[in-house]
Amino acid sequence: MTIPVALTIAGSDSSGGAGIQADLKTFAALGVYGASAVTALTAQNTTCVLGIHEVPADFVTAQIDAVFADLDVKAVKIGMVAQRATIAAIAAALARWSPEHVVLDPVMVATSGDHLLASDAVASLRSELIPRASLITPNLPEAAALLEQPVATSEGEIASQGERLLALGCRAVLIKGGHGQGSESIDYLFDGGRTIVLAAPRIATKNTHGTGCSLSSAIAAGLAKGEDLETAVRVAKAWISAAIAAADRLDVGRGHGPVHHFHRFY
């Protein structure tokens, strides 16, 4: 059989709930073969990030080139990029290999609250990676940080930020509402011509470690399988909602535990 291939370019989570580990679990759960290029090693668990060891940018390049030279990559997911040199290396690799689908999750802060992106790298993220993305998937605080604005608190403010993010050069924006209030978690998909509102019941659980990583990877998996963007986002939203709902079936760690990537299987 021929299986679609997706590449994740992100940081490693030693506790297994987020980053590269969550991405590969997501790809596997959704029937996609996952390859990876590690941008940073983190010493972390469900309560905190204890340390970050950045992978040299030239070795990030070597990993990406090795994968593209051999595997038929249908979609790329980009997560934690850590530093400016890594951003430049990834941007150059995307220009060199021209993947059809690039999902960029602008990871800045871990679920525990620890910062994962150097402050001087935000401008590089805006100028070098966002214009190369098919879709960016910021949560409300990340969207605000990218635009140097306060966090949006109304649908009108979210729509305004979505349009401003589109103006940075990406093809589409998904602003995630998990940090919002109310009984529903509402995401907004902007593709330059329309706004699609995606609502799901807000689930009362502390086990949300890796949610953003997993959602963006699920979208990339759908694109790798040939789904159009709206379908990929809708399917991924339903899948991650079910993974969050099943998270309490797992008993992992003392802090924000992981979502249940394999809820369909056990």
Shape: globular
The description of the largest β-sheet is: 6 strands, mixed
- Quick one: CATH class? Alpha Beta
Low-confidence parts, pLDDT < 50 over ≥5 residues? none
What is the strand arrangement across the widest sheet?
Answer: 3-2-1-4-5-6
Percent of residues in helical segments?
25-40%
Overall number of strands = 9
What is the strand and helix layout of this fold?
Elements: E1 5-13, H1 19-29, E2 33-44, E3 49-54, H2 57-70, E4 73-78, H3 84-97, E5 102-104, H4 122-129, E6 135-136, H5 140-147, H6 155-166, E7 173-175, E8 184-190, E9 195-201, H7 211-224, H8 229-245
Helix pairs in contact: 1-7, 2-3, 3-4, 5-6, 7-8
Characterization of the model:
The structure is a single chain. The chain is α/β, with parallel strands linked by helices. It has helices at 19-29, 57-70, 84-97, 122-129, 140-147, 155-166, 211-224, 229-245, and strands at residues 5-13, 33-44, 49-54, 73-78, 102-104, 135-136, 173-175, 184-190, 195-201. β2 and β3 form a beta hairpin. The protein has a single domain (5-249), classed as UDP-N-acetylmuramoyl-L-alanine:D-glutamate ligase (3-Layer(aba) Sandwich), CATH 3.40.1190.20. The protein has a 6-stranded mixed beta sheet. A 3-stranded antiparallel beta sheet has the order 7-8-9.
